[in-house]
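Ticket #4471: structure export looks truncated?
Reporter: QA, pipeline team
Priority: medium

Steps to reproduce: submit the single chain below to the structure queue and open the exported record.
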Amino acid sequence: MSDTPPDRLSVNQNSPYFQRELLERGIGIRFKGIQRRDVEEYCISEGWIRAALGNKVDRKGNPLTIKLIGPVEAWFERPAEGEAAADEAGAEG
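Actual output as written to the record:
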C-alpha cells in the first residue's frame, strides 16, 4: 500500500470514492491550516471538503453537508499492516 492518501475519499458507503481499508488506517485532514475531524469527503486536487452541518440529517438519515473551498492536506494516521510489520522487524534486527 502507498503511504500517500488518495486524491479523493469519502466516508459514505454509497459513494464511488469510499474505500474501507484506507479509512480503517485513519485519515487526518488539515483544511486551511486547521485540523478537522468532521470531514465527510475531500478532494485535494480540486481543493474542497464536505463537512457535516451540525446534527442535521436528510430524509434518508444521511448527514447534511456543506462544501468548503480551500487548501486541503491529507495524511494517514497509522501505517499500513505490511509496513508496520516491516518496521518492527527492521527495528529488532
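Status: closed, not a bug. The export was complete when the record was re-opened. Leaving a note from the reviewer for reference: The radius of gyration is 15 Å.
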